[in-house]
Specification:
The chain is α/β, with parallel strands linked by helices. It has helices spanning 17-26, 56-73, 87-102, 118-129, 166-181, 192-197, 206-211, 220-226, 240-249, 287-290, 321-335, 354-362, 377-382, 411-425, 429-440, 454-461, 525-543; strands at 40-41, 44-48, 79-83, 107-110, 138-142, 151-157, 201-204, 230-233, 254-256, 298-302, 309-313, 317-318, 344-348, 366-369, 385-390, 394-397, 444-451, 472-473, 476-477, 480-484, 491-498, 502-508, 514-521. The strands form five sheets. Strands 1-2-6-5-3-4-7 form a seven-stranded mixed β-sheet, with helices on both faces. Strand 3, helix 3 and strand 4 (107-110) form a beta-alpha-beta unit. The longest helix is centred in the C-terminal third of the chain and has 19 residues, at 525-543. The mean pLDDT is 96.
Length: 544
Amino acid sequence: MTDRAGTGALPEDLVDLSELLEAYASRTPDLSDPGQRVAFGTSGHRGSSLKSSFNDAHIAAITQAIVEYRAQEGTTGPLFMGQDTHALSAVAQDTALQVLAANGVTVLLDSRDGYTPTPALSHAILTYNKDRERDLADGIVITPSHNPPADGGFKYNPTHGGPADTDATGWIADRANELLEGGNADVKRIPLEEARAAETTQSFDYLDSYVSALPEIIDLEAIKRAGVRIGADPMGSASVAYWKEIGERFGLDLTVVNPEVDPQWAFMTLDWDGKIRMDCSSPSAMASLIQQRDKFDIATGNDADSDRHGIVTPDAGLMNPNHYLAVAIDYLFAHRDGWREDAGIGKTLVSSSIIDRVAESLGRRLVEVPVGFKWFVPGLLDGSLGFGGEESAGASFLRKDGSVWTTDKDGIILALLAAEIIAVTGKTPSQRYAELTEQYGAPVYQRIDAPADREQKAALKKLSPEQVTAESLAGDPITAKLTEAPGNGAPIGGLKVTTDRAWFAARPSGTEDVYKIYAESFVNEEHLKLVQREAKALVDGVIG
């Protein structure tokens, strides 16, 4: 933790936009460097033009690959495309449009020439595809999420509206790299002005489509009647215009705390490592909003594409994402009579076990899946999951009638839900969480990193439960050794070990020479430290 964490950004912290955009246009990736090839993680391809990992050539190749993939899959409807507020997003959208238009793909851009939150694009795809069996739509979201201002990101959402599965992203990445190796000779492309004027380039009002449907998922009348004072900080994100419209259209006591959009994010406070990062779950990045918490009944933040949420209460400050997920689940399953009686609760296996205890008390099926929101898509689509949430402050849930809302994370509805909870229960989410801990215990949770080289990370990813010979963890008998998620049998790409009072999960990092240890104890901080020490020793012993 740097001593500048939580303090305002200085001029020397800001990215040089001219250099960033010039590098996007001029640099050609060196494909012998793995870091400069196309690689789709859980949130699409990410990189920076300054590192030759997110450049015009990458986006042209990825877009051509998506065109070929959707043709292969028989996707013949329009493609919804939106961008967040990162500087590289706008130029990447221009590149993509040139390729899509050259290939004759109908593209729907924002009719307001503004920014598009990830959930608004997911919502648009699902709304368009509802009751259709042919000519289904898909989409591209241009965002690196909460990553620093120098970064760019490019995601593909198929016809189900959510993040593409590894079968799709693997094919797209392989084809994109093949195109790059051929100098993009097989990429079809026309000049930008010609692409903008093409008959296939059309517009769509993302904001109105999304905002007008909000009463179908949130009790906005209750919020209005109760006079809940909301402070919404878009944090320079794609949701800036959305929050203004929500407050005005529904007559809410809603203040847009900071309506500024700045691709350098000069107004941000620095994150834990001294970088500018729009992480609404970070106390350092959220420091300026936390300081204003007494002005509102609830204050909220969003990351750059608004698929994540940060919840700030007067009594507790910034809530831990796991704590808010537990409160949201507890509230929703008691106040959504239109949901199926067998609708389950989706969580990632590195989310807090207090969610397990809440689910058990509700008599609801718990569906524990690997990391990645894509695992919740089928359940949200068919209503068999009422809620799907990740420990990294990303979640979505069903409409009041039990039908799908989005199949991607939605930081806007999770923020509005916090206001609904206050309006209906008279308690802040943090006050309700305190009540839950009295009932189920107060867990202590932390993620740490441990060093591991490429071979050790590969060994961890392919681990089998039989390789773990330990019988106890931090003094308690081990109750489960998991390398597959209990909820769907999918490989977790690591290991999870549980006892009655604690658990840990270890997963290799995709970008650094470390593996991540997630751990939780229902005893105390000292017990958590013991779990972490024994977890590291156990994993190191197995992977060498």
